[in-house]
């Protein structure tokens, strides 16, 4: 049997996880600026198994538009370069000795608008997830009232608290979307 405080705690945790997942999604959306996290999804073969680039090389920023990749193992340079080139990120790495430079191509106005639409739709997805969590929490509270384990006053207070938590998380999603759009539209 769960209690109203447990329901609220569970809701808070799950909404925080939804925000974390949304932030993770945002890091993968390209802006005009270089971001080492964009290479997190690229896998490279390392002694027979596929590994993320960050585990076989040091990934840093050289300047706002260039990522540097420094392989830990001298022989990995060509494999890493090939993995970046073949990823669907549209990047064209260039080797300079054992350092790989990954310049971020400038984005066209049209591409920027596509990216802001993508950010908005991902934000909407995150908001829907948060609202679904709110609905689930409210249903749990209603079930407690129906089973005579909580009063209707408890239900009203709990639903008000659930709404406050939901509003706070939705506002955070809106802030993240606005910040990402600003980052994308900055030339």
UniProtKB/TrEMBL annotation:
All copies of domain Ribosome recycling factor, residue ranges: 22-185
Subcellular location(s) of the protein: Cytoplasm
Family matches, as Gene3D superfamilies: 3.30.1360.40, Ribosome-recycling factor
Gene Ontology terms for molecular function: ribosomal large subunit binding
Cited NCBIfam families: frr (TIGR00496)
Functional description taken from the UniProt entry: Responsible for the release of ribosomes from messenger RNA at the termination of protein biosynthesis. May increase the efficiency of translation by recycling ribosomes from one round of translation to another.
Alphabetized HAMAP family for the sequence: RRF (MF_00040)
Name by which UniProt lists this protein: Ribosome-recycling factor
Originating organism: Caenimonas sedimenti
